[in-house]
């Protein structure tokens, strides 16, 4: 054995050999060609010793002393007795050396890899490799990395398979999906908490501490979501950074999101764009989409619509719903690309089929306005409902409007109030303005003017023009200054949400009794009245448009018509021209006949109207004359006349 050879070669071994040689005994170490003691030609016979056992120096000396008494030839010589004592001492030292060498050999062996692993260890390593492969494939299916086409169902299947083998990252990812209800996984906060705790129990933190990038990123997600652990975004940022430094795209994306929002780290839009770019370069579809949105909006980077379209298209090619939604809206509005409503519908439909709420909302808007599809209000309500069920404020607002007006659904004011309230609670300015109007009029709720003003103010602070108009109107009624302050800047759009469709705001209803006041001069009030009236001709809210007219009015020299007839004419016009844009040109001239009673108002108006169904457009300028009377402190149009100044017609191009 190696230890025996080491003993033989040691200084103790050399001394021992010298003594034994002097006594005529040849010692052979185990592992040599022979073992034990052999006699020299001129010595007495000595039997081979028993197997060497560890013993103390004293025991060794005593034993050798006892055994030496049997060697008559040795006992006769005093010099030999002295040598035997030396032998005993040396043997004891040799025994101690053997024990020490054995201990050192064990320690060294534990730190040296085995050249041949046991079969069970090899099986465990193979299992670990298999489950890790499943997890990495699942991330590819959710992010589109390595040009994999996104498939949420397949990703969930792989995660569940890995989680069944207690792979902590898979359990953590499923916890995230379960918390948010992503990729078809039902929302369940309690189950999400259990999954997160199981991932921690199965060694997520230990794996992260050992530098595994996937574990570091997964642990960061738990800290952001606050599941299984406390919500600590600064901790999340640290773990994301460690994984991002290893080039892990998922962590680069997540860390970029924290930098963009200033959550857990100081806000740094440039840093966010840089991290998104790194992840996008690896084919991460979410990163490509959000980086595209930064280029579209000029946030953290120089605005570049062509770059935005390029990034969106890359993610679209991988089937990412967020990119389909955003690019679809660019095609709908002709932003950065030639307007193509058919393409807009196609992309929005693909994203809606994947359950993207913003796409469902946009598709509802396209059906409501007959843009790229045959107008279908019930279909619009259907898509709005799908998006509203996912909590999208814009869809809740637009669906509420349909219920308020009984358009595409049965009229239901209480349902409208419910939907407006949900959207208003999320800060949707259109819903706040509409809900304020219902409180002002007592429609579907108990009348409450203070609540109405509160809601108008919230919407006006976000720049909602109708809310500003309503506050001015109420100020005129009460004599109190309710002019809203300058609009606060709007917050950034969601990462995967396209810009919201035009918000449809509800205007004042003509049935409300109001008091007049001297807060504003009638010239100022009527000037604002006209601006509000022209604005109402461009949206789809019938009640708002009708509210500007007296109970009977002469429209375009066709004789007196009641409000029902006027409403029907507006409906017919809007159906013929779903898209309308009107604006005042130059000054508004107000001529007073009887102060506070009757006025004539003249102005020029540019108009543009479009029908995709008929593939027609019309534009031009008209001179407008309004006869207005003041009834109960409220302006009402009694006569409307128009004279054409310019007019053009045309056919929409195929690209539109």
Description:
This protein is α+β, with helices and mostly antiparallel strands and 656 residues long. It folds into four domains: 2-110, no CATH class; 143-319, Tetratricopeptide repeat domain (Serine Threonine Protein Phosphatase 5, Tetratricopeptide repeat); 391-520, Alpha Horseshoe (Serine Threonine Protein Phosphatase 5, Tetratricopeptide repeat), CATH 1.25.40.10; 531-651, Nuclear Transport Factor 2, Chain: A. Helices cover 56% and strands 12% of the residues. It contains 28 helices and eight strands. It has a six-stranded mixed beta sheet with strand order 4-3-8-7-6-5, covered by helices on one side. A two-stranded antiparallel sheet has the order 1-2. Helix 8 runs antiparallel to helix 9. The chain is elongated and about 150 Å long.
Task: Characterize this entry briefly.
A hairpin with a 2-residue loop joins β7 and β8 (634-651). This protein has helices spanning 2-9, 11-22, 57-68, 72-75, 78-110, 119-143, 152-164, 168-180, 189-201, 204-209, 213-225, 233-244, 249-261, 269-281, 285-297, 305-317, 321-333, 341-353, 357-369, 377-389, 393-405, 413-425, 429-441, 449-461, 465-478, 522-536, 542-546, 563-576; strands spanning 25-28, 36-39, 549-555, 560-562, 579-594, 598-611, 616-631, 634-651. The chain folds into 4 domains: 2-110, no CATH class; 143-319, Serine Threonine Protein Phosphatase 5, Tetratricopeptide repeat; 391-520, Serine Threonine Protein Phosphatase 5, Tetratricopeptide repeat, CATH 1.25.40; 531-651, Nuclear Transport Factor 2, Chain: A, CATH 3.10.450.50.
């Amino acid at each position: 054995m190696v230890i025996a050879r080491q003993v033989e070669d040691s200084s103790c071994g050399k001394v021992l050999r010298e003594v034994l040689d002097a006594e005529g005994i040849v010692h052979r170490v185990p592992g040599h060609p022979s073992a034990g003691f052999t006699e020299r030609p001129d010595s007495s016979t000595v039997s081979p010793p028993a197997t060497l056992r560890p013993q103390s120096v004293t025991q060794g000396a005593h034993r050798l002393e006892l055994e030496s008494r049997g060697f008559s030839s040795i006992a006769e010589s005093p010099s030999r007795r002295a040598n035997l004592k030396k032998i005993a001492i040396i043997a004891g030292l040799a025994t101690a050396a053997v024990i020490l060498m054995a201990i050192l050999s064990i320690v060294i062996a534990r730190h040296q890899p085995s050249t041949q692993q046991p079969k069970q260890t090899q099986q465990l390593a193979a299992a670990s490799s298999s489950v890790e492969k499943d997890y990495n494939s699942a991330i590819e299916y959710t992010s589109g990395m390595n040009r994999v086409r996104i498939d949420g169902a397949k990703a969930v299947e792989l995660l569940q398979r890995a989680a069944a083998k207690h792979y902590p990252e898979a359990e953590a990812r499923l916890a995230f999906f379960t918390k948010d209800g992503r990729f078809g996984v039902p929302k369940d906060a309690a189950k999400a908490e259990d999954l997160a705790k199981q991932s921690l129990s199965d060694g997520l933190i230990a794996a992260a501490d050992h530098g595994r990038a996937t574990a570091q990123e997964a642990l960061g997600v738990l800290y952001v979501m606050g599941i299984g652990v406390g919500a600590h975004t600064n901790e999340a940022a640290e773990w994301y950074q460690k994984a991002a430094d290893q080039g892990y795209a998922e962590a680069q994306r997540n860390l970029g999101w924290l930098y963009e929002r200033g959550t857990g780290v100081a806000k740094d839009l440039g840093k966010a764009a840089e991290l998104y770019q790194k992840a996008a370069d690896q084919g991460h579809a979410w990163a490509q989409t959000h980086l595209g949105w930064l280029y579209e909006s000029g946030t953290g980077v120089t605005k570049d619509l062509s770059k935005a379209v390029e990034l969106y298209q890359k993610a679209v090619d991988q089937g990412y719903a967020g990119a389909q939604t955003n690019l679809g809206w660019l095609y709908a509005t002709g932003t950065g690309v030639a307007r193509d409503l058919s393409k807009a519908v196609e992309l929005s439909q693909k994203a809606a089929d994947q359950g993207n709420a913003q796409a469902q909302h946009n598709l509802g808007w396209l059906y409501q306005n007959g843009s790229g599809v045959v107008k279908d209000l019930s279909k619009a309500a259907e898509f709005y409902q799908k998006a509203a069920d996912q909590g999208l404020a814009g869809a809740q607002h637009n669906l509420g409007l349909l219920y308020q007006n009984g358009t595409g659904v049965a009229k239901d004011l209480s349902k409208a109030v419910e939907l407006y309230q949900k959207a208003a609670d999320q800060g949707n300015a259109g819903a706040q303005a509409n809900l304020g109007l219902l409180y002002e009029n007592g429609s579907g709720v108990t009348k409450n003017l203070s609540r109405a003003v509160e809601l108008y103010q919230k919407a006006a602070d976000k720049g909602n023009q109708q809310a500003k108009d309503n506050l001015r109107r109420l100020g005129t009624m009460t004599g109190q200054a309710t002019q809203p302050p300058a609009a606060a800047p709007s917050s950034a759009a969601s990462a995967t949400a396209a810009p919201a469709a035009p918000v449809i705001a509800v205007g004042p209803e003509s049935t409300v009794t109001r008091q007049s006041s001297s807060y504003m001069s009638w010239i100022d009030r009527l000037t604002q009245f006209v601006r509000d009236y022209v604005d109402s001709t461009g949206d789809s809210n019938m009640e708002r448009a009708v509210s500007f007219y007296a109970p009977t009015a002469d429209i375009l020299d066709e004789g007196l018509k009641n409000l029902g007839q006027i409403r029907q004419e507006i409906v017919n016009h809007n159906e013929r021209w779903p898209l309308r844009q009107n604006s005042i040109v130059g000054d508004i001239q107000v001529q007073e006949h009887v102060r506070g009673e009757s006025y004539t108002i003249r102005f020029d108006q540019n108009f543009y109207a479009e029908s995709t169904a008929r593939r027609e457009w019309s534009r031009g300028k008209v001179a407008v004359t309004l006869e207005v009377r003041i009834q109960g402190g409220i302006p009402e149009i009694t006569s409307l006349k128009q004279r054409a100044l310019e007019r053009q017609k045309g056919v929409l191009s195929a690209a539109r």
